[in-house]
Specification:
- With 213 residues, this protein is α/β, with parallel strands linked by helices.
- It has a single domain, classed as P-loop containing nucleotide triphosphate hydrolases (Rossmann fold, 3-Layer(aba) Sandwich), CATH 3.40.50.
- It is 46% helix and 10% strand.
- It contains eight helices and five strands; from the N terminus they run H-E-H-E-H-H-E-H-E-H-H-E-H.
- The protein has a five-stranded parallel sheet with strand order 2-3-1-4-5.
- Helix 2 packs across helix 8 and helix 3 packs across helix 4.
- The radius of gyration is 17 Å and the shape is globular.
- The chain starts with 11 loop residues before the first helix and ends in a 21-residue tail after the last helix.
- The N terminus and C terminus are likely disordered.
- Shikimate-3-phosphate (S3P) binds next to loops.
Length: 213
Amino acid sequence: MGADFGLIIPPDDIASYLPGSAMEVRAVFLVGFMASGKSSVGQELARRLDWDFVDLDARIESRERQTIPEIFRDSGESGFRLAETSALRHLLTESLQRSSVVALGGGAFIQETNRVLLRQWPSVFLEAPVSELWQRSLADGIERPLRGDSEQFARLYAERLPCYRQAAITIVTSGKDPASICAEIERKLQSWGTGAVGSSQISPARSGTGESQ
Ligand code: S3P
């Protein structure tokens, strides 16, 4: 039942924290390969919706008190994946207190456990040609332990594509600026939620609850 647009009923203590009768937290999860723009589009979408922006990799780093490259170096990819699933589970069960746009790391949606955790929530795959992603990954200066060379990068992308395709919504991002990508996401989210969800569901879900994190 995808039509609830990622609705969760927060624990009792949050009721007093939310304004009025708003007892709902909504979220959308951005998925896609390295350098697909999950963070920049996510920040822009959160700004437009007046929702919080959550970067799962940043959550992992603060929970583990290590950078992503350090986690890979000390615990390997398997250790990183455990930390990633644990951070996602924690986010979904305990710390998603306000409506949020969540950017996942490039491998998060590849783990079946994570896809199961996210089943009730809208996921958006940001799709772009792998050659473009490779160029962007070289340009953005972010250290990515799994980037490898261009052939390894392309191979990993091809392996992962079937998983990304399981996202509820796909947006082709090539040649589009963040504002038009966000507008497209908002439109698709509305039709994705047809039935139980009206357009008001992606209007700001809170009013005057304070600052974003
Ligand atoms: C990973 C992508 C990274 C980060 C980690 C693993 C991956 O995030 O989670 O290095 O497996 O593709 P970005 O997609 O934000 O680069």
